[in-house]
Write a structure and sequence with these properties.
6 strands, 134 residues, STM4215-like, 6-stranded mixed β-sheet, alpha+beta
Length: 134
């Protein structure tokens, strides 16, 4: 599911015009260019019926948008929100039944600071209902 979620972002013309292929799972690429997007798993549960797993999965994903300025991070986050919030459809082998934004955080990331500055980061949490594994 994560690979298909990443491909959904990469295939969007507005998002890819801003970040190119700088969309990665789990962690920010070292020495990378910005803006960039990182997608991380933050939790989830599998749907169950009396016969076992239903195939429906609720995942919680954190999508982090990095930029050298607050405006850069915000511009990328706005493009991704336009695509993701309320999305229903198929990407690769994953049927996304519902993607909903449920949280937002906005801050300067001092852990990624160069001398005298840092990267701006905006995090969005999404609840993703999908059919498949993970």
């Amino acid at each position: 599911m994560i690979a298909d979620f990443l491909n959904l972002l990469l295939s969007d013309p507005e998002v890819s015009a801003l970040v190119g292929d700088r969309i990665t799972p789990g962690k920010l690429a070292q020495g990378g260019d910005y803006p960039a997007i990182v997608v991380s798993t933050a939790g989830g549960i599998s749907g169950q019926t009396s016969a076992g797993r239903s195939g429906l999965v609720e995942a919680r994903l954190q999508v982090s948008y990095y930029g050298e300025s607050h405006l850069d991070a915000h511009t990328v986050s706005a493009a991704a929100i336009d695509l993701l919030d309320g999305y229903r459809g198929t990407s690769g082998a994953t049927q996304f039944d519902s993607i909903s934004r449920v949280g937002t955080r906005d801050f300067l990331d001092p852990a990624l600071a160069s001398p005298g500055d840092g990267l701006f980061r905006i995090d969005h949490d999404f609840i993703v209902w999908h059919h498949g594994r993970g």
